[in-house]
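We close this part of the discussion by returning to an individual protein. The amino acid sequence and the backbone structure tokens for this protein are reproduced below:
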Amino acid sequence: MIITRTPFRISFVGGGSDLPNFYHRHEGAVLSSSINKYMYVTIHPSFSRGETVIKYSRTETVSDVHKLRHPIARQLLLDHGIEGCEIVSTADVPSGTGLSTSSAYTVGLVHALYAYEGKYCSQERIAAEACRLEIEELGEPIGKQDQYGTAVGGLKVIRFLPDDSVEVDPVVVSRAVQKELNENLLLFYTGLTHNAGEILREQDKNVVSESDKFNTLVKMTSLVYDMRDALSAGRLDDFGAILNENWQLKRSLTVAISNDFIDRYYDIAMQNGALGGKLLGAGGGGFLLFYCPKEKQLRLKAALSDLVTLPFDLENSGTKVVYVGNKDWV
């Protein structure tokens, strides 16, 4: 048995610049961090070696891997030439909430399959293979930030280069600054879920066809480096202000990113101690992230008391194998 643990991620600034129609014309960048909420993927030989079993929100049992309905599991098993196994996934948060559950599953399963084969694979290679699967093989209209954001741990700048390569640079901050940043970040669940693909298609179309949208995304990528410098210097109030500026720019890319419900709660938060925030993921629903100094958080939580809070911490490990059982199947 192999068990992998892959963190979800929160993206602070630059989201959307990881789409090829943008980064082929201008280098993209996001600043993000993995968090201690996880996707767990378990793989072991099935009881009946002639059957492949996949358990997620439903259970599939097939004698031919081609018949699996789960597209990610089906394609990865075919790519690796593996069958006769049972794969189970468990997540700390539901899908469609902006924390990159789909890509975390892909990353975790890629990692698990390599470990099942007895092969080492680096975190960045796992991310690259997850990108290839989701974008090239399955044709998903998504970018590359989620795969790298979940595979590689910690606070980091992820750069998307015109030649389709990706570079990951850690953001160096003192332990005290990271602790204060962690304590000042709050997540609130809106109760809404979204279809990231549809929103990203609309955003991508607007960025390609409208020069002002393209220039907005250029500005958002510049904020990545402003935020990195603010963090490195320990200027956390500036971090909050940049978070707010990025959100105002992002919500202008397409009307599907925000709505009256989200705008109302965002405004309430800003009036009750938050210095900045954003909706995580492509938009339309999921989790609202706010930066709020600790001394003002009771007021903020009271103002948003009808939303569910999700306690979390920033984490540094990225995807990892957390259990390896006996390899009796070899």
User: Anything to note?
Assistant: The CA atoms of residues 140 and 202 lie 14 Å apart. DSSP finds eleven helices and twelve strands in the chain.
